[in-house]
């Protein structure tokens, strides 16, 4: 039989119950009981929480139900937490409450259906704050012209959260997950919450910075299996609460890096900046190897990865990095340095070299097609993959898409296919290309087929049914080992 623990709000305030704390409040923010508490929070009519001891968990709210926010909320709910999601999009809210995912992300549909009873979405900030113990802010922080991040959406959320905290009598932890510029948490976030709530940070509420390191297409897996958790804390008890939550949620045993919010803010953009440096270094090796007969960048990069000082992750030749995180974090690191009147020369050079990868690939295409006597208008090029990486429809800063735009502008006849991104691509390319129904249809009658994104389904192309000899330019060694086709690899000497 499970042991039942009854928690009274007074016991929490007196320190009888250790953190994480539980409020036992009704929808007005006062001790008490209402129907919603009974259904969603497990309180009895006296405002007590009567739950099996193993189920005594803090209630969580997540502000911003985009790709990371919704996936975070679903992951918390899947591990037994009661979660309230907050968003301004009513259509999105309705879909989530019906168990329908409004977002394309691997595994999200299935997991959202499983947690329907533990996750609820609303547009009401006060409801979410008053009925939970900890709030994660996962709103967009778009890049500004100088490369730094905008706090516009963050500040709007902070204002509403602070107004709700004004009504609340118990301690509440506010966690910023959105990527922000260094010095934001202890200046903007702390200042706004204290001003709008009329309360004192550290006494009435806590603040922490806890950015995630995830990749679109594998958000759920990455969230549940992180290499480490980065926590920027003002108070140790807030960091303890976050660490306890993640120890319950994560399916591996992650390490924790706990530090001040400022150091965590710098760490977040510095880490991604370093990863982009590894990617760009591998591509720089590839550019050199392509000029040396017999040289192979993949062989070299694999050897480099065996050295523990370097490691195998992200040192793989291919196209340059893209997407919504790496490019902007790299530029933001340089922007932060400029604020301090110094130059982040390495970060600036990495960004420049990464942008050069599109030109490098186009030159490689010209070399391969140099033997064709037809004019460009008669040469057919198939581009396989247009998203910035596999397993996502996102095309933001996709080098595959940039390359396609250049090929079209040069007058080639281009066919395109991507398993998920075609609808997004139509909004960019319009009727300038032919949209294929699948990979086989895309390379039909092509003179050159470019494997621009390493989607696994491209390995299943029926090479035997090709109507003529197509030249394949494989940017990712995806087709390595396939026999009977004319294939060239990016990063291999001619």
Concise overview:
39% of the residues lie in helices and 14% in strands. It is α/β, with parallel strands linked by helices and 494 residues long. Strands 5-4-3-6-7-8-9-10 form an eight-stranded mixed beta sheet, sandwiched between helices.
Number of helices: 17
Q: What overall geometry do the principal axes of the alpha carbons give? A: elongated
Mean pLDDT: 89
Biggest β-sheet: strands ordered side by side in the sheet: 5-4-3-6-7-8-9-10
Helix-strand category: alpha/beta
Measured between the Cα atoms of the first and last residue, the distance is 71 Å
Strand content: 5-15%
| Rg, alpha carbons | 26 Å
Detailed description of the structure:
Residues 1-54 have low confidence and may be disordered. The strands form three sheets. Strands 5-4-3-6-7-8-9-10 form an eight-stranded mixed β-sheet, sandwiched between helices. It has 17 helices and 16 strands. It starts with a strand and ends in a 5-residue tail after the last strand. It is α/β, with parallel strands linked by helices and 494 residues long.
Notable features of this structure?
elongated, 6-stranded parallel beta sheet, disordered N terminus, 494 residues, alpha/beta, 8-stranded mixed beta sheet, 17 helices
Question: What's the topology here?
Answer:
Blueprint: E1 4-7, H1 9-13, H2 35-40, E2 49-52, E3 60-63, H3 67-78, E4 83-86, H4 90-97, H5 108-114, E5 119-122, H6 125-130, E6 134-137, H7 152-165, E7 172-176, H8 184-197, E8 205-209, H9 219-224, E9 228-233, H10 236-249, E10 255-259, H11 261-289, H12 297-305, H13 326-339, H14 345-368, E11 380-384, H15 399-409, E12 413-417, H16 422-429, E13 434-435, H17 439-443, E14 448-451, E15 471-474, E16 486-489
Parallel strand pairs: 3-4, 3-6, 4-5, 6-7, 7-8, 9-10, 11-12, 11-14, 12-13, 14-15, 15-16
Antiparallel strand pairs: 1-2, 8-9
């Amino acid at each position: 039989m499970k042991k039942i623990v009854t928690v009274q709000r007074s016991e929490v305030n007196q320190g009888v119950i250790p953190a994480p704390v539980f409020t036992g409040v009704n929808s007005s923010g006062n001790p008490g009981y209402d129907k919603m508490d009974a259904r969603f929070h497990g309180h009895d009519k006296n405002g007590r929480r009567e739950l099996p001891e193993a189920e005594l968990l803090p209630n969580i709210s997540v502000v911003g139900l985009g790709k990371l926010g919704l996936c975070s909320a679903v992951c918390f709910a899947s591990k037994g937490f009661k979660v309230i999601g907050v968003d301004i999009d009513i259509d999105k809210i309705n879909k989530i409450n019906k168990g329908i995912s409004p977002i394309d992300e691997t595994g999200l549909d299935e997991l959202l259906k499983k947690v329907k009873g533990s996750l609820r979405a609303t547009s009401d900030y006060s409801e979410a704050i008053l009925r939970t113990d900890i709030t994660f802010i996962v709103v967009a922080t778009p890049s500004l012209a100088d490369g730094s991040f905008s706090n516009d959406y963050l500040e709007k959320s902070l204002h509403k959260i602070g107004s709700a905290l004004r009504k609340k009598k118990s301690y509440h932890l506010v966690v910023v997950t959105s990527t922000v510029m260094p010095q934001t948490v202890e200046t903007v976030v702390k200042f706004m919450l204290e001003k709008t709530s009329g309360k004192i940070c550290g006494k009435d509420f806590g603040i922490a910075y806890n950015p995630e390191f995830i990749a679109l297409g594998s958000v759920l897996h990455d969230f549940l299996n992180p290499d480490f958790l980065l926590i920027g804390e003002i108070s140790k008890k807030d960091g303890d609460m976050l660490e306890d939550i993640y120890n319950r949620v994560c399916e591996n045993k992650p390490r924790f890096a706990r530090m001040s919010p400022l150091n965590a803010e710098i760490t977040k953009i510095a880490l991604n900046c370093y990863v982009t440096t590894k990617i760009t270094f591998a591509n720089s090796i590839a550019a050199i190897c392509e000029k040396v007969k017999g040289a192979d960048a993949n062989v070299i990069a694999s050897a480099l990865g065996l050295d523990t000082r370097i490691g195998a992750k992200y040192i793989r030749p291919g196209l340059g990095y893209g997407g919504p995180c790496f490019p902007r974090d790299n530029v933001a690191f340089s922007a932060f340095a400029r604020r301090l009147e110094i130059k982040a020369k390495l970060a600036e050079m990495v960004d420049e070299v990464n942008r050069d990868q599109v030109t490098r690939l186009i030159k490689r295409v010209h070399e391969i097609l140099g033997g064709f006597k037809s004019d460009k208008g008669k040469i057919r090029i198939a581009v396989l993959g247009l998203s910035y990486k596999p397993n996502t429809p996102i095309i933001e800063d996709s080098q595959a898409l940039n390359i396609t735009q250049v090929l079209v502008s040069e007058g080639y006849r281009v066919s395109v296919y991507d398993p998920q991104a075609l609808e997004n691509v139509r909004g960019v390319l319009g009727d300038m290309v032919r949209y294929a129904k699948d990979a086989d249809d895309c390379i039909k009658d092509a003179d050159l087929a470019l494997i621009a994104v390493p989607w696994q389904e491209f390995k299943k192309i029926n090479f035997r049914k090709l109507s003529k000899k197509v030249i394949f330019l494989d940017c990712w060694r995806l087709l390595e080992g396939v026999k009977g086709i004319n294939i060239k690899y990016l990063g291999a000497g001619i």
